[in-house]
Amino acid sequence: MGQKNTIKIILLILFLILLIIIIALMEIFIHNRPTVSNTVESNALIENSNNSNNIVEDRNKVDEASIDTTIEDDEELDDIDKIAKDLFEKGSFKIRETHYSDYYEYKVAEPVVDKEINGNMYRKTNVLYSEIENKYAEIFTGEALKEVLNIRFTEIDGYLYVMWGGASGWGVTNIKVSKISEENNEINYLIKYNNVNVADIVELEEQSCNMTIKLVDGNYRISATDYCGLQENYYNK
Length: 237
What we know:
Layout (H helix, E strand, L loop, with lengths): L1 H31 L3 H41 L2 H22 L13 E4 L2 E9 H8 L5 H8 L3 E4 L2 E5 L7 E13 L2 E11 L5 E15 L2 E7 L12
Antiparallel strand pairs: 1-2, 2-4, 3-4, 5-6, 6-7, 7-8
């Protein structure tokens, strides 16, 4: 009787061990088996990764194309066109600066002398008018030089008087120059560009203006432009 009980206990223990092994194997199988959800998510991640790589590649292609186009555009410009573009960049900056600079760098004469001319107040500086005239003459010549200087400056007894003012300015970008005509040692250009506002944001609307350059003592200078409303009558003849 005792022997039978011992056999039963041994069989029961073996059964329990076998059951534990089966349960353990099932747990391992269930844990390692990929679920539908995980498979879908994995596939989605792989697809998104591929799409992202494609997008990056496409963007790189677009950037490279833009760079190539810019280089080709610059290479297509002849030497005089490049000079014209450079002159417009410098000239348009100088015109904007003249409109909006406070000109504190020019020391005010003492005692302070103010003059009202055509409803505008001008203040005398210790700077000779010829100094700023020569500086602007590195970019402008003729009537264009006079027009730009007249935006803020006047001369009295040889001294520079500066109109009161000063404000935030703006910039330009995407400058394109197109030669329109050439005669009497002057070259006329159509200039296209985009304004950059005070928040440093490029405005989408393309702007345009006219510019004429002239060879003076072996160097080209801006002899006329209607940028910022200057010399509009010159181009409306």
